[in-house]
Design goal:
313 residues; 11 helices; mainly alpha; 85% helix
């Protein structure tokens, strides 16, 4: 018991020391201008993420052609991006500006909030994107049984689990940051492998000759499959998945290469720019939705028209 208490105390101290290393007086004096520029761009990203995903959520509420569980997955993803604009982005800006102002006490609070919110929301986004890839695979493989297997109740339970696990793991930063580290080592490769397998299986099945014969048989039985629409849904999800990988990969590479403790000003800038690229993803997703999903694009146009033409109606 004594050894466990000491181990718990050591990990807690390590977490506190890790925060203190990022909030040291005079550490970033040479890069104040760059920090202010990064902060300004992050403020812009927070605004665009909030506005863009607000319109997407309204559009998804109006849109009725999507299968409800599939729509719920996209609503969850848009919600995480909205929270990035409301919480993670501003807390990251507060952390950067606290370094410029040398407000070290507030710096530690802002860093903790930025890490917990960023880690939790990133985890939910990654898990949700993986669930979307599996959902698209099940829609193809289960065919007519899909709507009986993939239900709103089951999807809600899975998403609640995503949020609870992600928030609890993010909050572990306060008492043992190694939990979050090991969670990342396990969950990130697992999610990437699952999504890769799902899309590979989808494209293999779509172009397999036997499946083409099967589609023709179903059409003869009066059960036509809207393959054109399905392909669009798959490519839309794939674009969002690739955008997430492109925005998150540089940050994860930087995090694995850079020292775990004290950083030089140049190394800190590398970390700052790659972290900003992660926030770009939350502003980029609404653009991808409007570009690749016709129903959402039309609903967003209608919403914007209503807001601009009849703001008080």
């Amino acid at each position: 018991m004594m050894a466990q208490a000491n181990l718990s105390g050591d990990t807690g101290k390590q977490t506190e020391i890790l925060a203190q290393l990022r909030c040291v007086a005079g550490w970033t004096d040479k890069i104040h201008t760059q920090l202010i520029l990064i902060s300004a761009f992050n403020i812009f990203l927070s605004v665009t993420a909030f506005l863009g995903n607000t319109f997407i959520l309204v559009a998804l509420f109006k849109q009725s052609s999507l299968h409800p569980p599939s729509k719920l997955l996209y609503r969850c993803l848009a919600t995480t991006d909205l929270c990035v604009g409301l919480i993670t982005g501003p807390s990251h800006v507060a952390y950067l500006l606290s370094l410029v102002d040398q407000n070290l006490d507030f710096c530690r609070y802002a860093l903790s909030m930025s890490f917990i919110a960023g880690f939790s929301l990133s985890s939910v986004s990654l898990l949700t994107m993986t669930a979307i890839s599996v959902d698209r695979l099940l829609a193809l493989l289960l065919e007519l049984r899909y709507r009986q297997v993939v239900t709103m109740k089951r999807t809600c339970v899975i998403l609640i689990m995503f949020w609870v696990v992600s928030i609890v793991t993010g909050a572990s930063y306060f008492f043992n940051h190694r939990i979050a580290i090991w969670y990342s080592y396990i969950v990130i490769p697992l999610c990437i492998a699952t999504a890769t397998f799902s899309y590979a299986k989808i494209f293999h099945t779509l172009y397999h000759s036997h499946y083409q014969v099967h589609i023709h048989t179903l059409q003869q039985l009066g059960q036509p499959l809207n393959m054109a629409r399905y392909r669009k849904a798959v490519y839309s999800a794939l674009w969002v998945q690739l955008a997430l990988v492109a925005c998150y990969l540089p940050y994860n590479i930087a995090r694995s290469v850079l020292p775990k403790g004290e950083l030089s000003p140049l190394q800190f800038l590398v970390w700052g720019y790659t972290a900003t690229l992660v926030y770009v993803n939350s502003s980029l997703n609404p653009i991808l939705y409007c570009w690749k999903i016709n129903e959402i694009r039309q609903a967003v146009k209608e919403t914007i028209t209503q807001v601009l033409c009849c703001p008080w109606s």
